[in-house]
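in:
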């Protein structure tokens, strides 16, 4: 016999929908038959499967170990662990400083992303059990491109996922980035436009006027430091579309350093015929400001700081 106590992440759904996730290899017909025969019960009573589950409800499944293993799939996935730069954590939310090179979420079946590392962290620290994973998967809330570093939000609970996804959608959670662009910019500017993504090439285009399939975007930037031929910008991502900052700044003739996909250069020419390779786009999710006034910031990564030091020396 197996028992499962309904927690806050499982509450609020119909019992039959929960059972489908908990026993993914069983047909609905089989599950309803087991309910009728009281081989699956709710709070030690017969159930139809249409009951709405509440926190602390008890589901008991009177199967043999072999039968349970067959219908649950016995898929206890092994989640990797890694050293994570945790910026903030509470019961619902975890925020890390994601390094460049790490995916936010899987792009392919065999990928390992921040999502898997964060689930591994919760399992390792006892905040999550493999049993709970059968019915609820914590997940990242925002996405950063693989080679963009910085603040990545992870919903540890259903409430966390729902609340912070809503905050992003309603723009009550303010997102600021730091980036190094080609050219010397001296004014604070708000850019409007329309973005259209080509799924095949995984590339976006920016248009001044709306076209079929495009979405309105707004990007605001202000210079932090002006160098010789480059500018460190603080960018307010007002709308959050794929590659928005990278493509929008390239569209106005100021591509990000290292962003070859959007016409950025891959190396810096330094005095004395020295060159410094730039292996990724210089874009860092630097700051989050929550509706309640909380502010989180992520320190710049080593490669970003190295380039700033080099171009500063170049001018001086």
């Amino acid at each position: 016999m197996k028992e499962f106590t309904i927690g806050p992440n499982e509450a609020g759904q119909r019992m039959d929908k929960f059972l489908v996730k908990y026993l993914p290899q069983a047909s609905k017909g089989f599950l309803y038959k087991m309910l009728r025969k009281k081989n699956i019960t709710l709070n030690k009573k017969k159930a139809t499967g249409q009951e709405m589950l509440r926190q602390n409800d008890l589901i008991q499944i009177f199967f043999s170990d072999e039968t349970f293993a067959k219908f649950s799939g016995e898929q206890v996935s092994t989640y990797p662990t890694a050293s994570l730069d945790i910026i903030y954590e509470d019961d619902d939310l975890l925020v890390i400083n994601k390094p460049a090179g790490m995916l936010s979420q899987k792009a392919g079946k065999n990928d390992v992303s921040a999502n898997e590392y964060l689930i591994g962290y919760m399992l390792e620290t006892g905040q999550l059990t493999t049993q709970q994973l059968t019915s609820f998967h914590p997940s990242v809330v925002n996405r950063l491109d693989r080679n963009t570093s910085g603040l990545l939000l992870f919903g540890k609970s259903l409430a966390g996922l729902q609340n912070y996804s809503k905050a992003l959608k309603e723009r009550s959670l303010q997102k600021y980035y730091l980036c190094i662009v080609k050219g010397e910019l001296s004014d604070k500017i708000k850019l409007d436009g329309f973005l259209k993504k080509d799924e095949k090439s995984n590339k976006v285009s920016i248009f001044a006027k709306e076209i079929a399939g495009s979405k309105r975007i707004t990007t605001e930037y202000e210079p932090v430091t002006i160098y010789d031929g480059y500018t460190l910008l603080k960018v307010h991502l007002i709308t959050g579309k794929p590659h928005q900052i990278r493509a929008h700044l390239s569209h106005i003739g100021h591509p990000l350093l290292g962003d070859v996909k959007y016409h950025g250069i891959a190396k810096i020419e330094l005095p004395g015929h020295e060159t410094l390779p730039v292996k990724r786009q210089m874009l860092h999710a630097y700051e989050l400001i929550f509706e309640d006034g909380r502010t989180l910031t992520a320190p710049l990564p080593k490669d970003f700081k190295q380039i700033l030091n080099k171009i500063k020396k170049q001018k001086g």
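note: The mean pLDDT is 92.
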